[in-house]
Amino acid sequence: MVEIVVFPDIESLVETYLSAQLADRGDNTPIARTAPADPPARLIRLTSFWGEDTGRALASRFVTVQCTDATSADAADLAELCFAILRGARHDPSMPSVRDVVAVDRPSDRLPEPDPYRPNYQFTLSFLVRGQAR
Questions:
Q1: Model pTM?
Q2: Angle at CA 127, nearest 5°, toward 123 and 128?
């Protein structure tokens, strides 16, 4: 049997990590993968896209993060906080599968504007992740 390498579900990994890091800072902003039917004013949405293999055990995965809030200033602050937390994940020993995190410009991966409209900011990160042999 050929040994295969399976990579982590990047959305679950990011959602769990970001939620815990925000909670440690006293922030309980909900995180969703799909837009809720009745979204709160303050919300973080995640979506991911396949990246590229980088050798046998490493691959990149793209994650777009959309932060909404009642005002543009609050949405910008939430986005900056999420960006800083996620950029630091590569240095966190609790995230051994994350080897690097890089900001990327991928306009095609932008999430649609919230409906009803709320101020929002988005960014996309490329996560270099290590897979596990199976």
A1: 0.91
A2: 155
Helix (H, G, I), strand (E, B) or coil at 125: strand
Q: Is the pLDDT of residue 109 over 80?
A: no
Confidence class of residue 129 from pLDDT cuts 50, 70 and 90?
very high
Full strand arrangement of the beta sheet holding 98-104: 31-32, 43-53, 58-68, 120-130, 98-104
Any idea what DSSP says for residue 110?
A: P
CA nearest neighbour of 109 among 31, 47, 18: 47
User: Percent of the chain at pLDDT above 70?
Assistant: 98
Give CA–CA dist 95/99, Å, rounded: 9
SS3 state at 61: strand
Query: Smallest Cα–Cα separation from 123: which of 90, 91, 84, 71?
Result: 84
**Cα atoms found within 13 Å of the Cα of residue 32, Cβ hemisphere only:** 15
Q: How would you classify the pairing of strands 43-53 and 58-68?
A: antiparallel
DSSP helix/strand/coil, 130: strand
Q: Say how far apart CA 103 and CA 99 lie, in whole Å.
A: 14
